[in-house]
Design brief:
three-stranded mixed beta sheet, YefM-like fold, about 90 residues
Length: about 90
């Protein structure tokens, strides 16, 4: 389970947090102003292969967009609308 911690608290306890990550395998979500901005966890975990069983947990740890979701969606649609179309019949290689 991830532990949430404010950025100022993470600064004060940085060495302790690194030790708990290294020796206990704990994960931390660093927040600023109540919003998640960073994730800290063991390096070995990011290198190991994942299974489909772990997918739900990984998706739950992703930060939520909240109010910014609509703006993000508009930005993506704007970028998509500006992309050139591919000529008919050409395959991606």
């Amino acid at each position: 389970m991830d532990k949430s911690i404010q950025a100022t608290e993470a600064v004060r306890r940085f060495s302790e947090i690194l030790n708990t990550i290294r020796f206990k395998g704990e994960h931390y979500i660093i927040q600023r102003g109540g919003k998640p901005i960073a994730f800290m966890g063991p390096v070995e975990e990011s290198r190991k292969e994942r299974t489909l069983k772990e997918l739900n947990g990984l998706l739950e740890r992703l930060p939520k967009l909240g109010k910014e979701a609509a703006t993000f969606e508009r930005d993506i649609e704007e970028v998509r609308s500006r992309q050139p179309t591919l000529p008919a019949g050409e395959e991606w290689v």
